[in-house]
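We examine the record.

___
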Amino acid sequence: MSHQENHDAPEFTRRFVNLADERLGAEAIFATDDFFADKQRMLQTADAVFYPDRYDDNGKWMDGWESRRKRVEGHDYCVVRLATSCRIFGVDIDTSHFTGNFPPAGSLEGCYCPDGDPLDDAKWDEIVAPMGLGASAHHYADVTSDAIYTHVRLHIYPDGGVARLRVYGRPNRDWTDMAARGEQVDLASMMNGGVVVGWSDSHYGNPNAILAPGRGVNMGDGWETRRRREPGNEWLLIELGNPGEIEKIIVDTCHFKGNYPDRVSIQGAYVDGEKDKSLTARSMFWSTILPESKMQADHIHEFDAASLSINGPVTHLRLNSIPDGGISRLRILGKPATK
């Protein structure tokens, strides 16, 4: 959510949510061994760091999961309960800062166990075949299975350290049931499958952070652009988790005090079929849902139905930051529509 954008990373890292993120509730529930570095560290939101002179009682302090040197047959593995059940599209096994202690290979399995954690007889599917791992690098792999999983199991051969495991997927939600109950939900929340699909600039922050649960923890936990020095304004495009009719919009500028947008506006459309590369150009002409509205520093701005122009369900939104600045969170509250 807050890690710096890697321009060499595959599209799934931008298109989907890392559901192995501890900030979203993911938890490392078992490891065969984590003597040198605690397994939960591997799920931290921020990029791994390295402190040359930091040691603890067990040796060199490393930012990730690290097992001891194996002196018997076998290999180590770690089981992670994902933040929510999901379809997985890709993974990143990141060995940042592990140079003489990275595993030579790794693989990943998935398990669907919605009623608790997997027992010894649970069924695991291989979703990433054994692949070579190198020193201090991202190792990306596509996942082609369309199954739903709640847990993953990372195998490392035979031992060593992994800085971060990121599992990019789309949360599994029963939208038909939610629509039948008529309950109001956050249609844009990353936990409901909302995702940012395009933006003009993201110099200071990951745009997807604005769809994260809770309020921002600091100014780095949000979408912030550079200072705009030319005409126009900054913007981003959001694909909702499900089509829905908007009833309330919340724009939160938490922690943004000298750099919040002067105004924001929101446009929307029901985009049917393929979301092709013309989406950005087409978004300029989408209907206005929230007209230009003044922003305040470090403030929760709420806009109810009386402030909005609603004409049926939408699938996509364009958030305009006028002319630039930082937004911590965006909430799009409404009723899901049946597809």
